[in-house]
Amino acid sequence: MNFLLSEDQLALVDSVKGLLRDMCDPLRVHKIFDMPGEAVFDVELWVALCEMGVPAIMVPEAHGGLGLELVDLAIVAEALGDAVAPVPFFGHVLATLAITLGGSDEQKAKWLPRLASGEVLGTVALCEGKNGWLADEWTLTHSGLSGVKTLVPHASEADLIVVGTTEGLALVEKGASYTTARVDSADRTRPVDTVTFAGVAAELLPEGADVATRIIDAAAVLLSADSFGGAEHCVSMSVEYAKIREQYGQAIAGFQGLRYQLVAMALATEPARGLYWYAAHAWDKIPQKASHAASQAKAHLTDTYLQVTRDTVEAHGGIGFTWEHDTHLYMKRAMLNWAWLGSPSRHRLRAADMAGW
Amino acid sequence: MELDFGSEFDAFRHEVREFIKANWPPADGKLKSHENERAFVLAAIERGYMHRNIPKAYGGSEQPADIVKAEIIREELTKARAPSGRIPGNGLVVGTLLEWGTEAQKRGFIPATLRGDIVWAQGFSEPNAGSDLASLRTKGELSSDGAKWIINGQKIWTTGAHNATHMFMLVRTEPDAPKHQGISYLLIDIRQPGVVVRPLTQMTRQKEFNEVFFDNAETPSDMIVGERGQGWSVTRSTLKSERSGISTMTWSLSMFRDLVKLAKEVELDGQPAIKNLRIREELAAIEGQLMSLTYSTYRATSHDVHGRDIGSFQTMPKIYMTELAGRISKLARDIVENDFVDMGGERLKWIERFMISLSMSIAGGTSNIQRNVIAERSLGLPRDKSQGASA
């Protein structure tokens, strides 16, 4: 039985984590988070991740990529979640994957090498209204594309937007007739925009209709992985704090009440690793199970992550409630993960439908 | 990343399947016959499919440890509803004897235990020694001629003692030594006048465990396992076995399948309960937890097979499953509604499960003790001094 990471995968995670240790320490994240004005991303870190090949992971070798799988991308997403990395990874890799799966030869040749290198920044515009995340809820049409997409990651910076339409996924290039308005989002590590299209001739991806669901499922897996990385970080941060914080003349780690809270956090988090691994693996290898597993992972991991961040604040006491501490970076990241792509409740109901209940 | 066992095991699975086909069901069709069962088990041992970690000299089949093969055998036996080869009564004693027993003890007890001729009960807990087991007080004294141990005291929660022939037990033989060093591990035939077994009725109405009273009960002096005062270490040693955790996970999966079936069967407000949004969502939430347990178990097994550290998950399956079983039985309660009170009705199984899921939080280390273990071993928190010995 080989339900484990290969040596290559462990090496990939190691190098990404090494880079994050060097370039994405908490002080750096706070600095980016606290930039005055609209939220921004960490350009230097993103360039370094691109040089390392992160956006190229799932791009076919023929187009300058590494030709790897969603599992590989997911374990990188876990590392980025662990570090609350303020980079446009999420929207970019989904746009790249959409063209990889759904694009014509021409579209692939035109965009993939530049997306793989990071020269072009991509994103995806899926949601309509307050919760129209899934393909059958989309109403915008690709010809004369007009209307509003919500919670679009890094749309203001993006050179290329993959838009969900009733005919499938379609491409819109920067400079076309659309406007973006940055949302005053709690999570300033991954800004999102409201995008208003005003009669754009969007270019359909020929396989886009079938690919839309694959992209939604991949997004669910990547959010789950990010959530696992963040939740695990919160558990160890809380454990380490309990070991050094003293009250009543001893480390608070000695008090059973707190110990059991920490255990409950670990017990909610650690076993969920297998679920997100499975969801990634199913996406790669068991297509008939992929949507069900992706929704289960999205529901369980984002729900767990948000709760664990609340518990983390509690475990830290007053310092954990302050702006200067790391806790709120994680909680706000967890808030976006919870909402993006639809609430856990919606994904549980989707999973129930998929299970044929 | 792969979820199956890999094609290199296909041939082995085929072999096991062929063996089972040739030997089960038995020719006379009597599935419940003890003789048929025994014949199957002996044939399976002969082929190397059962009691694989036990030397041939003691009735086992002496195979190199292989979690994957063990799992394939288990799967195929379950599929064919063939005897599992599980030792009747408490089989933990076999591992202990293999590690600590004298040659005479091994030869005298292990083969008879595997055949089911000797059935063991475990005499550990006492009325005042539960989680704090090392404070046990049942006394063992050597007779003046040194020929036998005289035992006085009481054990409790002794599962299956009413069906057992023998007991492996902890007794205090060195009253003046510190508490962990005053305990010895004894074997005793409990079919004697000095031993009285009184079944306790559980809240489920079933009688599975007992109180056992010892009034000058006797066992020969060579029935001690390990040295005098070494009993604590004897019980603490864990024999390397082929348990992968997959079988416990399978148990949760089958309980969940029953729950889905129940939700489809029972009507709630004029439609199958499974169509009710609240039931449906909770069912999916439970499935999410179950998938977490399932695939983390596969991950742990894979890490084990490849000699990699499992990490903090190692200490978690028991309490995770306990909480899951509670959640499953509570949703079943919400589905059956009024039938939840009728122990004479068709939903008795779910009423029992509602209660039995609680016993999981007590037996074999309470959930709070499990939390202590997770805190120390998985989170690396300093030892809780008020807990005595480390968890």
Detailed description of the structure:
The complex is a heterodimer of chains A (about 350) and B (about 400). Chain A is α+β, with helices and mostly antiparallel strands. Helix content of chain A is about 55%, strand content about 15%. In chain A, the strands form three sheets. Chain A has a four-stranded mixed sheet with strand order 1-3-4-7. In chain A, α10 packs antiparallel against α12 (about 345-355). Chain A is globular. By secondary structure, chain B is an alpha+beta fold. Helices cover about 40% and strands about 15% of the residues of chain B. Chain B is built from eleven helices and ten strands. Chain B has helices at about 10-25, 35-45, 65-80, 90-100, 105-115, 230-235, 245-265, 275-305, 315-335, 350-360, 365-380, and strands at about 120-125, 140, 150-155, 165-170, 185-190, 195-200, 210-220, 225, 265-270, 270. In chain B, α1 (about 10-25) runs parallel beside α3 (about 65-80) and α8 (about 275-305) packs antiparallel against α9 (about 315-335). The longest helix of chain B is centred in the C-terminal third of the chain and has 29 residues, at about 275-305. At the A-B interface, α7, α8, α9, α10 and α12 of A face α3, α7, α8 and α11 of B.
Can you describe this structure in just a few lines?
Chain A contains twelve helices and nine strands.
By DSSP (H or I, 4+ residues per run), the number of helices of chain B equals: 11
Largest sheet of chain B: 4 strands, mixed
| SSE string of chain B | HHHHHEEEEEEEEHHEEHHHH
- Global Rg of chain B: 23 Å
Helix content of chain B: 40-55%
Helicity range of chain A:
40-55%
**How are helices and strands ordered from N to C of chain A?**
HHHHHHEEEEEEEHEEHHHHH
The radius of gyration of chain A is 20 Å
What is the count of β-strands of chain A? 9
Instruction: Report the structural category of chain A.
Output: alpha+beta
Looking at the structure, what is the overall shape of chain B? globular
Q: Globular, elongated, flat, extended or rod-shaped: what is the shape of chain A?
A: globular
- What distance lies between the first and last C-alpha atoms of chain A, to the nearest angstrom? 30 Å
* Proportion in β-strands of chain B: 5-15%
Report the oligomer: heterodimer
Query: Structural class of chain B, please?
Result: alpha+beta
Overall pLDDT confidence of chain B: 92
Beta content of chain A comes to: 5-15%
Q: What is the overall pLDDT average of chain A?
A: 97
